[in-house]
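Hi D.,

Good news: the full-assembly prediction came through. Inputs first.
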Amino acid sequence: MKKVLLASTSTLYGGGYLEYLLPTLKKHFENVNTLLFIPYARPSGISHEEYTMKVGEAFSKININVRGLHEFENPEKAIQEAEAIFTGGGNTFLLVSELYNNNLMDVLKKVINDGTPYLGTSAGSNIGGKTMNTTNDMPIILPKSFDTLGILNFNLNPHYLDPLEGSTHMGETRETRINEFHKQSSIPVLGLREGSWLEIYDNNVIIRGELTARLFRQNEFPVEMSPGENLNFI
Amino acid sequence: MKKVLLASTSTLYGGGYLEYLLPTLKKHFENVNTLLFIPYARPSGISHEEYTMKVGEAFSKININVRGLHEFENPEKAIQEAEAIFTGGGNTFLLVSELYNNNLMDVLKKVINDGTPYLGTSAGSNIGGKTMNTTNDMPIILPKSFDTLGILNFNLNPHYLDPLEGSTHMGETRETRINEFHKQSSIPVLGLREGSWLEIYDNNVIIRGELTARLFRQNEFPVEMSPGENLNFI
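Then the structure:
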C-alpha cells in the first residue's frame, strides 16, 4: 500500500533543485494534480512562502501544482485530503517540533501508511525513520520527542559522508557519531549518500541511485548495500 | 571569582590527549591535588571508567590526581566538595541528559560561579554556554532541556569549521547551521576553532590560542575576533 521515496538530498552539486529526481518523480506522482508541501524545515531559515514557491517552480516542470501546508487553516484536514505529500529538507529539529506543535505526526503517518504518495528529501527523509536521533542537523529547537514516522524499520542518516582521508580535523566523523548512537540504541541506521534514495513500495525498501549505502547495526561491522538491494529484511 | 577554561578540543592533530593545554592547565589548576572528572559525554561510547583512566594519565604529567564523578555515591556532594572540575568531550546530548538525570546542572553552575576552577573541552565547553543549541553532535538521546550552565553570556560552537572551498557536498555548512539557529534565537554564538580556548577569569572572557574565533550575532555579519580580545562586551 505504501508509495514512498526518501532521498538523501534535494539537490546534487551543480544541478537544480530536485532536478536529478524529476524523471523518478514524474512516475511516482503519476496522475497527481496538486501536491501538498510541508515547508516546516525552512533551510537557511527561509519563510514557508519562499520555500513553497521554490518547490512549486520545480514541480511545474512535471505539471504538478504545489500548495504549502501553512496555507491551510486546518492542516490536519489538508494532510488527510492530500493527493500526495512532499516534506522538504532543512532543519530536522524545527520540522519535528512543528509537526508535534501542530499535532500532525500521527495523521501524516496514517495517510502515508494508507497509500498517499510521499516524497521526503534530507530532513523530510529523516522523519521516515523510527526516530530523528541520527540527523546531522543542529539542535536549534527542542522538539517534545525524537520519535518520527517509522515508515522504515530503521533510521536514516542523509547526506552520509565517508571519513575524509588525511583530514586533520578532530571533530567526530559521521561513523563515530553513529557508533555513539549504537551505544544508546539498537535501531539500525542507513547512511544514504547524496544521489541515493529509497523506494518504499508496499513492503519493499529498494536502494536507488548509483551509489552504495552504508548499513550500521549495533555490535556489527557496517556493510555497504548496493543499488537495487531490498532492505525489507531489516 | 570565576576561573574557567573552555577549549574547542581536547586534542590537536598529531598531539596527545590534552597535550597542547598542559602548560596552561598547570597554572590554571595550581595547588590542586585532586581533580573531579565528569565522564558523562563518553566519546565513541567508551565507559566512564576507561574515560577517567585516560584523563588520569594526562593529568599525572602535571601531578594531579583524577577521580571520576561516577565513583561517588553522592555526585552532588562530590561536585560541592571538589577542588577543581573537568568535563570532557564526547556527545553533548548524552552529557546534558546525564547532568539533568542526576540533578547536577544547578550545583555545577553554582560551584563554578563561586570559584571552583573548571575546565571544559568540546562537549564540556559547550555546556558553558547559555544553551546547547549550537553543538555539532548527533542527538543520540533527548535531554529534558537544552539549557546549560550559562557561564558565558553566549553559546559556543566548538570544533568550528570554515566552509570547505570547492566542496561538492550539499549538506549545510557550519555557518548555515548557525544562521538557522539565529532565525530561532538571539543568543550570540562563538565559533571556536580547534586550538583555541576561552579563559574566563572573573568577568573577563579572553580568546586564547593562535587562531581567531568567529562571532555570529543575529541580523549582523559575522566577525573574526583575535586572540587576546575580551568578549565581556557580549
